[in-house]
């Protein structure tokens, strides 16, 4: 029980100064990694550290993918707006 409290304190201490933006994925990964490490042979701290790194990387990849999807949606919307404006101008222009 004491060891679990120490692990929790270390993870909390490492995550606190990093801020919310830097901790994305780290906490969830640390919890999963800590449990897996503990089950695999009482290596919870090592598992938590590895889980934090892996979770942070996965969050960065997801954030990049989401950003690209939002940019693609914005480009699509801009293209649609330009086509609508061109069609509207063609209908309203008199010669």
Summary keywords:
95 residues; 87% helix; 0% strand; mainly alpha; single chain
Beta content comes to under 5%
Mean pLDDT score: 79
Which stretches are poorly predicted, pLDDT < 50 over at least 5 residues? none
State the separation between the terminal residues, measured CA to CA.
85 Å
The major pleated sheet works out as: none
Shape by Cα distribution:
rod-shaped
Tell me the number of helical segments per DSSP (H or I, 4 or more residues long).
Answer: 4
* N-to-C series of helices and strands: HHHH
Q: What class do helices, strands and sheet pairing give?
A: mainly alpha
Can you give the helix content as a percent range?
Answer: over 70%
Written overview of the protein:
The protein is built from 4 helices and no strands. It is 87% helix and 0% strand. It has helices spanning 2-15, 19-22, 26-41, 44-92. The chain is mainly alpha-helical. The model has no long low-confidence stretch (mean pLDDT 79).
Quick gist of this model?
By secondary structure, this protein is mainly alpha-helical.
Structural topology:
Layout: H1 2-15, H2 19-22, H3 26-41, H4 44-92
């Amino acid at each position: 029980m004491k060891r679990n409290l120490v692990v929790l304190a270390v993870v909390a201490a490492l995550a606190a100064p990093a801020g919310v933006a830097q901790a994305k994925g780290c906490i969830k990964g640390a919890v999963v990694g800590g449990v897996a490490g503990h089950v695999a042979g009482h290596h919870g701290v090592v598992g938590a550290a590895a889980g934090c790194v892996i979770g942070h990387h996965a969050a960065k990849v997801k954030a990049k993918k989401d950003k690209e999807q939002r940019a693609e949606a914005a480009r699509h919307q801009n293209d649609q707006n330009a086509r609508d404006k061109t069609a509207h101008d063609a209908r309203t222009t008199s010669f």
